């Protein structure tokens, strides 16, 4: 009986640890979901990540959220010629979703490749 109680405690502690880690990893999720209101027009190079913000409730702006190599997040309207050129060259900008969901989708995509 003590052994099963010990095992159940370990399972509880491991589950609690996993929940806490996942909760802490989503801290910056609001950073990506915020609505772009200030826009940059200068060229951003190199681009590390790009996500497309589409108009939604309480956010009427069509924009691209671009992260540079230093992790700085910029909002860019879809109109600058340098961005249009990069998109034509194949810059991939999926819809802006929370980083937690993005990680789940990336894992699912990797699993499908096997």
Automatic annotation (TrEMBL):
One annotated GO molecular function: cytokine activity
Segment forming the signal sequence: 1-26
Pfam families per the UniProt record, alphabetical: IL8 (PF00048)
Domain Chemokine interleukin-8-like: start-end pairs: 34-88
Entry GO CC: extracellular space
UniProt keyword annotations, A-Z: Cytokine, Signal
Family matches, as SUPFAM superfamilies: Interleukin 8-like chemokines
This protein's name: Chemokine interleukin-8-like domain-containing protein
Organism for this UniProt entry: Pagothenia borchgrevinki (Bald rockcod)
The organism's taxonomic lineage, starting at the top: Eukaryota, Metazoa, Chordata, Craniata, Vertebrata
């Amino acid at each position: 009986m003590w052994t099963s109680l010990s095992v159940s405690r370990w399972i509880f502690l491991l589950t609690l640890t996993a929940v806490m880690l996942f909760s802490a990893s989503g801290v910056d999720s609001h950073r990506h979901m915020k609505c772009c209101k200030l826009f940059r027009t200068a060229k951003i190079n190199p681009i590390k990540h790009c996500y497309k913000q589409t108009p939604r409730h309480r956010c009427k702006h069509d924009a691209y959220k671009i992260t540079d190599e230093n992790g700085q997040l910029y909002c860019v309207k879809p109109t600058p010629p340098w961005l249009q050129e990069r998109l034509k060259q194949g810059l991939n900008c999926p819809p802006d979703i929370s980083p937690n969901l993005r990680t789940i989708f990336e894992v699912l995509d990797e699993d499908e490749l096997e």
